[in-house]
């Protein structure tokens, strides 16, 4: 009986090991190895340094909101007054349209508020993810000078964030996020591009945010960085 129990224990352990290996991305390190420790430290230092440096800059943010592929709103500075609604528009129809606009505006605001918790990444939150064992590090396919940090449960249980980092410059190149609002069914997907200000810090150059359930897309472009 003891031999059978030991054999059963060995089989259980083997199955557990196979499961762990099968759920780890090829070429990625999931344990808190020396490589991961160094990579996480690099990213933490980079985001902290850039956050401090960007506090000395102003810039222009342009936001375009599209619904089902059709642009509905674009926020930008303008001296022209908004166009008046057509006189023939009925009050009921106008009320419905305004209510719908308000609904989507609220939805867009909720998404943008959520994404501010991810972009740019925070040093303390990266450390928390590292301490909890929620980070994997591995190569970026087709880019030998880059690597990826894949982080799970960064802000919400079940979310995922992937950072692509330049090995030499030790700075973020891009970022992708899979998260959700109140319900996991209300998915939000994000891609972020980074660029460097000539002679200055790294910064978010553009974001594309997709609210999947309502097919709403928010495109953000940052430009005209000026030192204070």
Fold and architecture overview:
This protein is α+β, with helices and mostly antiparallel strands and 228 residues long. The protein has one domain. Helices cover 33% and strands 36% of the residues. It has four helices and nine strands; from the N terminus they run H-H-E-E-H-H-E-E-E-E-E-E-E. Strands 2-1-9-8-7-6-5-4-3 form a nine-stranded antiparallel β-sheet. Helix 2 packs antiparallel against helix 4. The chain is globular.
Task: Give the arrangement of secondary structure elements.
Blueprint lengths: L1 H21 L11 H21 L2 E11 L2 E6 L15 H25 L7 H9 L3 E6 L2 E10 L7 E7 L4 E10 L6 E10 L5 E10 L4 E12 L1
Antiparallel strand pairs: 1-2, 1-9, 3-4, 4-5, 5-6, 6-7, 7-8, 8-9
Helix pairs in contact: 2-4
Question: Briefly, what is this?
Answer:
With 228 residues, the chain is α+β, with helices and mostly antiparallel strands. 33% of the residues lie in helices and 36% in strands. A hairpin with a 4-residue loop joins strand 5 (160-166) and strand 6.
β content, as a range? 35-45%
Mean pLDDT level:
82
Count the E strands. 9
Separation, N- and C-terminal Cα atoms: 77 Å
Order of helices and strands: HHEEHHEEEEEEE
Structural class call reads alpha+beta
List keywords for this structure.
disordered N terminus, 228 residues, 9-stranded antiparallel beta sheet
């Amino acid at each position: 009986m003891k031999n059978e129990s030991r054999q059963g224990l060995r089989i259980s352990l083997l199955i557990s090991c196979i499961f762990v290996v099968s759920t780890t991305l090829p070429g990625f390190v999931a344990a808190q190895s020396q490589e991961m420790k160094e990579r996480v430290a690099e990213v933490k230092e980079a985001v902290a340094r850039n956050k401090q440096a960007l506090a000395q800059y102003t810039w222009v943010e342009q936001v375009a909101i599209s619904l089902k592929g059709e642009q509905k709103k674009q926020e930008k500075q303008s001296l022209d007054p908004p166009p008046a609604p057509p006189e023939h528009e009925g009050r009921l129809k106008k009320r419905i349209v305004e209510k719908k606009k308000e609904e989507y505006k609220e939805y867009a605001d909720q998404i943008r508020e959520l994404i501010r918790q991810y972009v740019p990444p925070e040093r303390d939150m990266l450390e928390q993810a590292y301490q909890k064992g929620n980070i994997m590090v591995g190569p970026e396919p087709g880019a030998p000078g880059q690597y990826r940090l894949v982080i799970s449960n960064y802000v919400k249980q079940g979310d995922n964030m992937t950072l692509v980092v330049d090995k030499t410059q030790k700075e973020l190149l891009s970022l992708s996020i899979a998260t959700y609002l109140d319900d996991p069914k209300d998915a939000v997907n994000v891609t972020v591009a980074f660029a460097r200000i000539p002679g200055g810090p790294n910064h978010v150059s553009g974001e594309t945010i997709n609210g999947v359930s309502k097919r709403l897309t928010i495109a953000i472009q940052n430009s005209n960085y000026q030192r204070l």
